[in-house]
C-alpha cells in the first residue's frame, strides 16, 4: 500500500507528454497578461526604505501567464462620462435650495441695507465656513459696489453676488488633474491622502471610474494596509470597472512596498495612471510625515509623483482645515477633493481650504452614487449654490 502511495504522489504533479512537472503557481503571483479586474497580492515585508526590492533582487514572477479562466469573471461597468456629471451635480446643488445662496440674496435684496444687514451677511458667510478673511473681503466688495451702483433690483443683486462669489472661488486656478507620466511609457502616479472617515478609499475608486470613462488604463495600489477591509473595498471598486488592484497579502504590511509594487505593475502593464490609496491615520504629524515621506521616496524610484490629492469632508468645517494644514505641510498636496459637498450650508469650505493651502479644489463629490465625483468648476459651483 505504501509503495502505491509513493507512486501516486509524484503522478499527481505530472502532466502527459514528456513527464514534465507543471508547478501549480498561485494566481496571486501571476503578473503578466492579466485580464482586467485582476487582484495581485504581494508578499510584503517591512524593510525600511528598502522595502521595495530592486528589480535585480526580485524579478517579476511573470513566467506563468494567467488565463481568463484563472480569474473570476466580474461584470464590468461603463462609467458615466465626466462631462455630463458637471451639469448633473450643479443641478443637484441648485435643487437642494442652498442656504448660503438663499440667505445672501434675501438680505441683499432689501431696500435699504443697514450695518446690521451687513453683519448678517458676514455671519452667513462665516457659518458657511468661508473663513474670516475671505468673508470680510466679500462683504467689503459688495458694500462698495452696492453703494456706487445703487443696486436694488433682485436680478442685478444676483448678478453682482454671482460675480463676487466667482472671484472669491477663483476660476483662474489650474484645476487640471495631472495624470500623465513625465516620460513616454511612464504612468502618471497619483497619491491620495487624508484621514479615515472622509471617504478617501471610496474617492480613489470613484476617481478610477472618472479615468476609465476617459479611456485611460488604470492600476490601483491598496497602500492603506492598516485599516481592516480597506484593500477589499478598493478591490471591489476596481473589479467593477475592470481595473487591476495591487494589494498586500496581509494586514499591516509595509505601505511603501505595496505602493512601489503598484507603480511597477503599472509600468509593466502599460498603464496610463497608477492611483495609490494611503492610510488615513493622523495620531501625530511626525508619524504621518515619516510614513508619507517613505512612500514618496520608494515610489519615485520607479516613477515621479504627478499629483498628491487631499480628500476632505466638506461638512467638517474648521476641523477639516486643521487636517488640510497638517497634510499640506507633510505631503506636498497639489490638489483637493471635497466629499459630501451636498451639505451646501458648508459650501464656503471651497474658498477657505484653497486659501489655507494655496492649491485648488480639483474634484468634488455630491452624493453616494458611484459616478457622483466630478471635476470642480468655479462658475458652475457658484451657479449651483445660487440656484441658477
UniProtKB/TrEMBL annotation:
Q: Which reaction does it catalyse?
A: GTP + H2O = GDP + phosphate + H(+)
Q: Per UniProt, what is the membrane topology?
A: Peripheral membrane protein
- What do the Gene Ontology cellular component annotations say? cytoplasm; plasma membrane
Give positions of region: Disordered. 34-58
Q: Which organism is it from?
A: Xylanimonas oleitrophica
Q: Does the keyword Iron-sulfur apply?
A: no
Keyword annotations for this protein? Cell membrane, Cytoplasm, GTP-binding, Hydrolase, Membrane, Nucleotide-binding, Receptor
Give the gene symbol.
Answer: ftsY
Which protein family is named in the record?
Belongs to the GTP-binding SRP family. FtsY subfamily.
How the protein assembles, per its UniProt entry?
Part of the signal recognition particle protein translocation system, which is composed of SRP and FtsY.
- Which example biological process does GO assign this protein? SRP-dependent cotranslational protein targeting to membrane
Q: Where in the cell is it found?
A: Cell membrane; Cytoplasm
- What name does this protein carry? Signal recognition particle receptor FtsY
Assigned EC number: 3.6.5.4
Q: What does this protein do?
A: Involved in targeting and insertion of nascent membrane proteins into the cytoplasmic membrane. Acts as a receptor for the complex formed by the signal recognition particle (SRP) and the ribosome-nascent chain (RNC).
Q: What is the lineage of its organism?
A: Bacteria, Bacillati, Actinomycetota, Actinomycetes, Micrococcales
Q: Name one GO molecular function term.
A: signal recognition particle binding
Ranges for domain SRP54-type proteins GTP-binding come to: 360-373
Entry-linked InterPro entries: AAA+_ATPase (IPR003593), P-loop_NTPase (IPR027417), Signal_recog_particl_SRP54_hlx (IPR013822), SR_rcpt_FtsY (IPR004390), SRP/SRP_N (IPR036225), SRP54_GTPase_dom (IPR000897), SRP54_N_sf (IPR042101)
Amino acid at each position: 500500500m505504501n509503495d502505491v502511495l509513493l507512486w501516486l504522489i509524484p503522478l499527481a504533479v505530472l502532466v502527459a507528454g514528456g513527464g514534465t512537472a507543471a508547478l501549480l503557481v498561485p494566481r496571486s503571483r501571476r503578473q503578466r497578461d492579466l485580464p482586467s479586474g485582476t487582484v495581485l497580492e504581494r508578499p510584503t515585508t517591512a524593510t525600511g526604505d528598502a522595502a521595495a526590492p530592486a528589480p535585480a533582487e526580485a524579478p517579476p514572477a511573470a513566467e506563468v501567464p494567467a488565463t481568463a479562466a484563472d480569474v473570476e469573471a466580474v461584470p464590468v461597468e461603463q462609467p458615466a462620462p465626466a462631462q455630463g456629471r458637471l451639469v448633473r451635480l450643479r443641478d443637484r446643488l441648485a435643487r437642494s435650495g442652498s442656504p448660503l445662496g438663499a440667505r445672501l440674496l434675501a438680505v441683499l435684496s432689501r431696500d435699504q441695507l443697514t450695518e446690521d444687514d451687513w453683519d448678517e451677511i458676514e455671519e452667513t458667510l462665516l457659518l458657511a465656513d468661508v473663513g474670516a478673511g475671505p468673508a470680510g473681503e466679500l462683504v467689503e466688495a459688495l458694500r462698495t459696489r452696492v453703494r456706487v451702483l445703487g443696486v436694488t433690483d433682485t436680478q442685478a443683486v444676483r448678478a453682482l453676488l454671482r460675480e463676487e462669489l466667482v472671484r472669491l472661488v477663483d476660476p483662474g486656478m489650474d484645476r487640471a488633474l495631472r495624470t500623465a507620466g513625465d516620460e513616454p511609457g511612464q504612468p502618471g502616479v497619483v497619491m491620495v491622502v487624508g484621514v479615515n472617515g472622509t471617504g478617501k478609499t471610496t474617492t480613489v475608486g470613484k476617481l478610477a471610474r472618472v479615468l476609465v470613462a476617459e479611456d485611460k488604463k488604470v492600476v490601483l495600489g491598496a497602500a492603506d494596509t492598516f485599516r481592516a477591509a480597506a484593500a477589499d473595498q478598493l478591490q471591489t471598486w476596481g473589479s467593477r470597472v475592470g481595473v487591476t488592484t495591487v494589494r498586500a497579502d496581509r494586514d499591516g504590511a509595509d505601505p511603501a512596498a505595496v505602493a512601489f509594487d503598484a507603480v511597477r505593475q503599472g509600468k509593466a502593464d502599460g498603464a496610463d495612471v497608477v492611483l495609490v490609496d494611503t492610510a488615513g491615520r493622523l495620531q501625530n504629524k511626525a508619524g504621518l510625515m515619516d510614513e508619507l515621506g517613505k512612500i514618496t521616496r520608494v515610489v519615485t524610484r520607479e516613477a515621479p509623483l504627478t499629483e498628491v490629492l487631499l480628500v476632505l469632508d466638506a461638512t467638517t468645517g474648521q476641523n477639516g482645515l486643521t487636517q488640510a494644514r497638517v497634510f499640506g505641510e507633510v505631503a506636498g498636496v497639489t490638489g483637493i477633493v471635497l466629499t459630501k459637498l451636498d451639505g451646501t450650508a458648508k459650501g464656503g469650505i471651497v474658498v477657505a481650504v484653497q486659501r489655507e493651502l494655496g492649491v485648488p479644489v480639483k474634484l468634488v463629490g455630491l452624493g453616494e452614487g458611484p459616478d457622483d465625483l466630478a471635476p470642480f468648476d468655479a462658475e458652475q459651483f457658484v451657479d449651483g449654490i445660487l440656484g441658477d
